[in-house]
Each structure stands twice: as structure tokens, then as C-alpha cells.
Amino acid sequence: MKFNIRGENLKVTEAIRDYVEKKIGKLDKYFESKPTSDVHVNLSVYNEKQRIEVTIPMTSLLLRAEEEHTDLYAAIDLVVDKLERQIRKYKTKVNRKFRQNGIPKGIEDLQVEGNDFDEADDIEIVRTKRFDLKPMDSEEAVLQMDMLGHAFYVFQNATSGDTNVVYRRKDGRYGLIEPNN
């Protein structure tokens, strides 16, 4: 794995870099072929909290996890555990679902032995909502979202006609999701 490690409000020392590479490098055992590009690691410090975000791009899969802790090394350990659970859970579900149809391209790269998850981990959709998408701009969509008290809002972009989503980020600001045409 090749690493791209960035620090925000934090100097990435050689010791931190070595620890990140050692811990995240252990995930290498799950990949038959290596990730298609660099593993992105963002380390930051805000309000006495250490935060780590890790993104591992694969051919048709994107692994991403983030964790916060008062101790940076503990946050790194926690994010590695989270990524490992994601890999195991995803591979187990893919194996179960695609046993008859074959595994989709890119997924076969993940190497996980056994079935660590029981049927209780199955995804269950408990509610389906249907509604008409109203054409509006992103600012109006944010206002609608705030009025409804939701964390996200789906709308039709008045300019492009595409379906977009605005959402409230953990830092209190807003994000916009647009399709990649």
C-alpha cells in the first residue's frame, strides 16, 4: 500500500507516520491485489480531539472510516478495527448474496475467511417513502431541510434537472451531493 498522510492542525511526525503505515498496512492481508491508488489518511486535531479519516479506493469499492479520540494512537487503532469490520461484513454479505450469480468485479480482491456475521446483520429496510421532487436551488433545499428538522434533503436541481441531496455535516456546515454525469 502507498500512503498519502496529511495533518491538519497537527505535524505528522515520523513516529506517527510509521504507526499509521504499520497499523493500516495490516489490512493488506485482505487484498489479493493492492488498492488502485494511494491510501488517503487525514489526521486532525480540534477541541482536544484527535481525528483520523482513512479512505482506501478499490476498483469498484471505496472503503472509508473515521474515528475521534483524545489519544491519536487510540484513534488509529479504532479506525483500523472499523475498516477491518467493514471488510469482513461486506465480503460476507457479498458472498452470501452473489453465491449463485458470481462476485462482481473488484469485490473478488477482498480475501476474508469464514462467516463472522450472523443473519441479524442483514440489512433491513423498515420504511419506504415516495415523494415528488421539486425543482429548486441548493440554498432553498437547505432551508427546506432545516424547516423539516432533517439531516438531509433530496431535491431536483432547478438548473441541471438532476437529483441532488443536501445534508448537514458533523461540523454544522452543509454538503451537496450531485451525480457525476
Brief summary:
The protein is an alpha/beta fold and 181 residues long. The protein has helices spanning 14-25, 72-97, 138-148, and strands at residues 3-8, 39-46, 49-57, 62-69, 135-136, 152-157, 163-168, 174-177.
**What ranges have pLDDT less than 50 throughout 5 or more consecutive residues?**
114-120
Strand neighbour order, sheet with most strands: 1-2-3-4
SSE order, as H and E?
Answer: EHEEEHEHEEE
Q: What is the percentage of strand-forming residues?
A: 25-35%
In round numbers, the mean pLDDT is 82
Radius of gyration: 20 Å
Mind describing the biggest β-sheet? 4 strands, mixed
Q: Give me the secondary-structure category.
A: alpha/beta
Give the N-terminus to C-terminus distance in angstroms: 30 Å
| Structure summary, number of beta strands | 8
Shape: globular
Number of helical regions: 3
As a percent range, the share of helical residues equals 25-40%
Task: Please give the structural blueprint.
Layout: E1 3-8, H1 14-25, E2 39-46, E3 49-57, E4 62-69, H2 72-97, E5 135-136, H3 138-148, E6 152-157, E7 163-168, E8 174-177
Parallel strand pairs: 1-2, 5-6
Antiparallel strand pairs: 2-3, 3-4, 6-7, 7-8
Question: Characteristics of this structure?
Answer:
181 residues, alpha/beta, 8 strands, 3 helices, 4-stranded mixed β-sheet
